[in-house]
Specification:
Elements: H1 2-21, H2 25-41, H3 45-62, H4 78-102, H5 106-114, H6 116-127
């Protein structure tokens, strides 16, 4: 009997924690912003790579959601597709900066990261 109760409690905890683990679009954007600052101030390739990787993970996760401003739009609406396209652009930029960081080119990677700002500004105007 004790094993059944323990199993049920474990399942209940896992089920309850799963939704809490999923980040919202806003949470992912906060993660991107926080790591963007770290990337620009990085003084080692390890720090910049960790920040860029965290940004990439958050951007990929954000693509799965819909920002609050678009909650009334369908998944296949032009606005949602454009929002996700903006994240595709950002991910491509992150990948470019990561490639530079992987080559040990810290200054070039930081310069490439500065190019994220116009992408952010363009899509924030539309969907924030």
């Amino acid at each position: 009997m004790n094993k059944k109760i323990m199993t049920l409690m474990a399942v209940a905890l896992l089920c309850a924690s799963s939704p809490a683990m999923a980040a919202s679009v806003a949470d992912n954007m906060d993660t991107i912003a926080e790591n963007y600052g770290k990337v620009l101030k990085a003084d080692s390739t390890d720090v910049i790579k960790k920040g860029l990787q965290a940004m990439r993970v958050a951007a990929l996760d954000a693509q799965k959601g819909i920002p609050t401003k678009l909650k009334n739009k369908a998944e296949d609406s032009p606005e949602v597709k454009d929002f996700r396209h903006g994240l595709d652009l950002l991910i491509g930029q992150i990948d470019g900066a990561l490639a530079l960081a992987d080559q040990g080119k810290l200054d070039e990677a930081k310069k490439a990261a500065q190019d994220f700002k116009p992408t952010r500004d363009t899509y924030h105007k539309k969907y924030r």
